[in-house]
Each structure stands twice: as C-alpha cells, then as structure tokens.
Input
Amino acid sequence: VLPNYTSVGHGQMAPPLTTKATFAMASEGAFDKVVFPFTAFTAAVAQVENQEPEWGQGWGAYGKRYVMGFADNTLSSFMTTAVAPTFFRQDPRYFVMGEGSRWHRMAYALSRTVVTQSRFGHAQFNFSDILGNGAAAEIMNAYHPVEDRTLSATVNRWGMQVLYDTITDVLKEFWPDIHRHFHKTS
Output
C-alpha cells in the first residue's frame, strides 16, 4: 500500500546510483498518490489524540496536523534517500535477500537499519538512515509547535522514524512472498 521506490528485487541487477537518481527516488516516495490519504489518516489520529493540543480541534487544527505530517514525511524521505546518501556516498536502496530461512531474512532486514552499501557496493554503517533521520528530526523543530521542540520530543521523532524505516525494510523483504501468496489464491 505504501510507496516503494527504493527496493531492488532478489536477483535483479541494480544500475549504478547517481545523485540525480536518489533525488528522483525521494520525490517519487514523498509525492506518491498513496502518501496523501496516508497522511490524512495519520493527521486524523493526531486530531483524535489531541496531539499538539495548543492547536485545538476543528478543521483548521486538522489542516495544521496534515501539513506538518506531510512535511515530516517529505523531509525524512529527502534526508534519508537523497541528501544524506549523497553526502555519505551511500546507496539508500533496500536489496531484497529473497532466499534463506525466515529468521535469516528477518535478521538481514533488521540489520539494514545499521548496515547499508556504499555506492561502490561495500557494506558500511548506515549513516544515511541514522544521521539523515536525526537531521530531519532536528529540522522539524523549525515548524513543530514550541512545546514539541524539546530534546525529548526531537529524539522521539528521530527514534520513531528509524523504527518506521526498520519496519518498512522487513515489509520490503517479505512483500514478494506475501504478494505471491495472495496472487496464487485469487
């Protein structure tokens, strides 16, 4: 359901990555047609939970929550898929393992939070995801309400985005299997 422009399927040849390609992937992911209703849903949850209580309730408050959520998603996408990978010369794509035991593939998917490939194919610490999300969380302080600009709130935003990226890596690893299962039964 969520956009996936950064996966390389098992056995697929991945063309060398350029800076232009990383920005194109970030744009496709940030502005995909499913992002808009997904952001509407998360803004509705924030409205029901009265997050950012100083904004109050009503359509105006909902609009602020929607814009903030959309900005957060877009900023995180660009920081972790284009800006940080360009700076650190890393490849932000997820390379699907696609074979082996479920536990082995799960461990591999979870490890991608901290391990990635350089643009030259060498394994290295995933500065792009860890520091990219940290930078995004800090930049978000420019437009989040004053009460949400604390160190605790910033670290929470960073941690939630890293967790989200970790979960999506697991989904990317197993999505071909899930898709194949449902495609067979339909």
In short: The helical segments are 19-30, 35-48, 59-88, 102-111, 127-139, 151-185.
